[in-house]
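Page 47, continued from p. 46.
Same chain as before, 180 aa.
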Amino acid sequence: MTDTTDIAALREAAMKATPGPWSVARDGSVISNQYHPLATVSDGFHRLRSDGETGQDAEFIALANPATILSLLGQLEAECQRADEAIQLNPLAVDVSELEATYIGDIRIHMAAISEYKQRAESAEAEIADLKAKLANPVVLPQRYVCEGYHLEPEPEGECYDRDEVIEAIQIAGFTVKGE
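Result:
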Protein backbone atom coordinates (compact mmCIF):
# COMPACT_ATOMS: atom_id res chain seq x y z
CA MET A 1 0.00 0.00 0.00
CA THR A 2 3.03 2.27 0.01
CA ASP A 3 2.57 2.84 -3.70
CA THR A 4 1.43 6.46 -4.11
CA THR A 5 -0.93 5.41 -6.94
CA ASP A 6 -2.85 3.12 -4.55
CA ILE A 7 -3.03 5.87 -1.95
CA ALA A 8 -4.20 8.39 -4.54
CA ALA A 9 -6.81 5.95 -5.87
CA LEU A 10 -8.08 5.26 -2.36
CA ARG A 11 -8.22 8.98 -1.56
CA GLU A 12 -10.10 9.65 -4.82
CA ALA A 13 -12.60 6.86 -4.09
CA ALA A 14 -13.16 8.17 -0.54
CA MET A 15 -13.72 11.71 -1.87
CA LYS A 16 -16.35 10.43 -4.34
CA ALA A 17 -18.17 8.24 -1.78
CA THR A 18 -21.43 9.28 -0.14
CA PRO A 19 -20.61 11.64 2.74
CA GLY A 20 -21.22 10.56 6.30
CA PRO A 21 -21.75 10.21 9.05
CA TRP A 22 -22.50 6.54 8.38
CA SER A 23 -24.34 4.40 10.89
CA VAL A 24 -25.83 0.94 11.27
CA ALA A 25 -29.58 0.44 11.76
CA ARG A 26 -30.75 -1.08 15.02
CA ASP A 27 -31.27 -4.47 13.37
CA GLY A 28 -27.61 -4.37 12.22
CA SER A 29 -28.42 -4.88 8.55
CA VAL A 30 -28.65 -1.41 6.95
CA ILE A 31 -25.76 1.01 6.62
CA SER A 32 -26.90 4.57 6.04
CA ASN A 33 -25.76 8.15 6.11
CA GLN A 34 -27.88 10.99 7.40
CA TYR A 35 -29.75 11.21 4.09
CA HIS A 36 -30.51 7.67 2.86
CA PRO A 37 -29.53 3.98 3.11
CA LEU A 38 -26.16 3.13 1.51
CA ALA A 39 -26.18 -0.66 1.68
CA THR A 40 -27.99 -3.61 3.17
CA VAL A 41 -25.86 -6.30 4.70
CA SER A 42 -27.52 -9.67 4.15
CA ASP A 43 -27.18 -12.68 6.44
CA GLY A 44 -24.56 -13.96 3.98
CA PHE A 45 -22.27 -11.12 5.10
CA HIS A 46 -22.46 -12.19 8.74
CA ARG A 47 -19.97 -15.04 8.83
CA LEU A 48 -19.70 -17.26 11.87
CA ARG A 49 -16.26 -16.83 13.41
CA SER A 50 -14.18 -19.59 14.97
CA ASP A 51 -15.23 -18.47 18.47
CA GLY A 52 -18.91 -19.10 17.60
CA GLU A 53 -19.82 -15.40 17.39
CA THR A 54 -21.10 -13.64 14.29
CA GLY A 55 -18.80 -11.09 12.66
CA GLN A 56 -19.83 -7.47 13.01
CA ASP A 57 -19.46 -6.74 9.28
CA ALA A 58 -22.09 -3.99 9.06
CA GLU A 59 -20.50 -2.15 11.96
CA PHE A 60 -17.07 -2.46 10.35
CA ILE A 61 -18.31 -1.17 6.99
CA ALA A 62 -20.03 1.78 8.70
CA LEU A 63 -16.78 2.63 10.51
CA ALA A 64 -14.75 2.34 7.26
CA ASN A 65 -16.48 5.44 5.94
CA PRO A 66 -14.87 8.11 3.73
CA ALA A 67 -13.95 10.34 6.68
CA THR A 68 -12.17 7.46 8.46
CA ILE A 69 -10.30 6.40 5.31
CA LEU A 70 -9.24 10.00 4.61
CA SER A 71 -8.11 10.35 8.23
CA LEU A 72 -6.07 7.13 8.02
CA LEU A 73 -4.51 8.29 4.77
CA GLY A 74 -3.67 11.63 6.40
CA GLN A 75 -2.02 9.81 9.31
CA LEU A 76 -0.11 7.57 6.92
CA GLU A 77 1.11 10.50 4.86
CA ALA A 78 2.09 12.43 8.01
CA GLU A 79 4.07 9.45 9.33
CA CYS A 80 5.75 8.97 5.95
CA GLN A 81 6.65 12.68 5.95
CA ARG A 82 8.03 12.43 9.51
CA ALA A 83 10.00 9.33 8.54
CA ASP A 84 11.44 11.06 5.48
CA GLU A 85 12.44 14.08 7.58
CA ALA A 86 13.99 11.87 10.27
CA ILE A 87 15.97 9.92 7.69
CA GLN A 88 17.30 13.16 6.22
CA LEU A 89 18.38 14.35 9.68
CA ASN A 90 19.82 11.04 10.83
CA PRO A 91 19.46 8.05 8.51
CA LEU A 92 20.49 5.60 11.26
CA ALA A 93 17.90 6.79 13.82
CA VAL A 94 14.73 5.55 12.06
CA ASP A 95 13.58 1.94 12.00
CA VAL A 96 11.48 1.93 8.82
CA SER A 97 10.29 -1.63 9.37
CA GLU A 98 8.70 -0.57 12.68
CA LEU A 99 6.83 2.26 10.94
CA GLU A 100 5.66 -0.12 8.22
CA ALA A 101 4.47 -2.69 10.75
CA THR A 102 2.60 -0.06 12.76
CA TYR A 103 0.83 1.93 10.07
CA ILE A 104 1.12 0.38 6.66
CA GLY A 105 0.30 -3.11 7.97
CA ASP A 106 -2.97 -1.84 9.47
CA ILE A 107 -3.94 -0.12 6.23
CA ARG A 108 -3.17 -3.29 4.25
CA ILE A 109 -5.52 -5.25 6.50
CA HIS A 110 -8.27 -2.65 6.03
CA MET A 111 -7.71 -2.50 2.28
CA ALA A 112 -7.97 -6.29 2.01
CA ALA A 113 -11.26 -6.22 3.91
CA ILE A 114 -12.60 -3.40 1.75
CA SER A 115 -11.56 -5.28 -1.38
CA GLU A 116 -13.34 -8.41 -0.14
CA TYR A 117 -16.53 -6.45 0.59
CA LYS A 118 -16.34 -4.83 -2.84
CA GLN A 119 -16.06 -8.28 -4.48
CA ARG A 120 -19.00 -9.52 -2.42
CA ALA A 121 -21.07 -6.50 -3.43
CA GLU A 122 -20.23 -6.98 -7.12
CA SER A 123 -21.15 -10.66 -6.85
CA ALA A 124 -24.44 -9.79 -5.16
CA GLU A 125 -25.22 -7.18 -7.83
CA ALA A 126 -24.60 -9.77 -10.57
CA GLU A 127 -26.85 -12.27 -8.80
CA ILE A 128 -29.58 -9.64 -8.42
CA ALA A 129 -29.32 -8.78 -12.12
CA ASP A 130 -29.67 -12.49 -13.01
CA LEU A 131 -32.70 -12.83 -10.77
CA LYS A 132 -34.30 -9.68 -12.21
CA ALA A 133 -33.76 -11.04 -15.74
CA LYS A 134 -35.34 -14.31 -14.68
CA LEU A 135 -38.34 -12.51 -13.21
CA ALA A 136 -38.72 -10.36 -16.34
CA ASN A 137 -39.74 -13.45 -18.35
CA PRO A 138 -43.27 -14.44 -17.41
CA VAL A 139 -44.37 -18.05 -17.07
CA VAL A 140 -46.39 -18.92 -20.19
CA LEU A 141 -49.33 -20.95 -19.01
CA PRO A 142 -50.42 -23.95 -21.07
CA GLN A 143 -53.72 -24.48 -22.85
CA ARG A 144 -56.93 -24.17 -20.79
CA TYR A 145 -59.48 -26.92 -20.48
CA VAL A 146 -63.11 -27.34 -19.54
CA CYS A 147 -63.52 -30.06 -16.95
CA GLU A 148 -66.45 -32.38 -17.65
CA GLY A 149 -66.33 -35.20 -15.14
CA TYR A 150 -63.02 -36.97 -15.63
CA HIS A 151 -62.68 -35.68 -19.17
CA LEU A 152 -60.74 -32.51 -20.14
CA GLU A 153 -61.79 -30.70 -23.26
CA PRO A 154 -59.51 -27.96 -24.73
CA GLU A 155 -61.24 -24.57 -24.36
CA PRO A 156 -59.56 -21.10 -24.50
CA GLU A 157 -61.96 -19.79 -21.84
CA GLY A 158 -61.84 -22.97 -19.72
CA GLU A 159 -61.22 -22.89 -15.99
CA CYS A 160 -58.79 -25.85 -15.73
CA TYR A 161 -55.14 -26.50 -16.54
CA ASP A 162 -53.38 -29.83 -16.83
CA ARG A 163 -51.12 -30.11 -13.75
CA ASP A 164 -48.18 -31.61 -15.64
CA GLU A 165 -48.39 -28.91 -18.31
CA VAL A 166 -48.36 -26.17 -15.64
CA ILE A 167 -45.32 -27.73 -13.93
CA GLU A 168 -43.53 -27.95 -17.28
CA ALA A 169 -44.34 -24.28 -18.08
CA ILE A 170 -42.95 -23.16 -14.72
CA GLN A 171 -39.77 -25.22 -15.21
CA ILE A 172 -39.28 -23.90 -18.76
CA ALA A 173 -39.36 -20.39 -17.27
CA GLY A 174 -36.41 -21.42 -15.09
CA PHE A 175 -38.14 -21.94 -11.76
CA THR A 176 -38.42 -25.03 -9.60
CA VAL A 177 -41.66 -26.59 -8.44
CA LYS A 178 -42.09 -28.03 -4.97
CA GLY A 179 -44.32 -31.06 -4.55
CA GLU A 180 -44.13 -32.36 -8.09
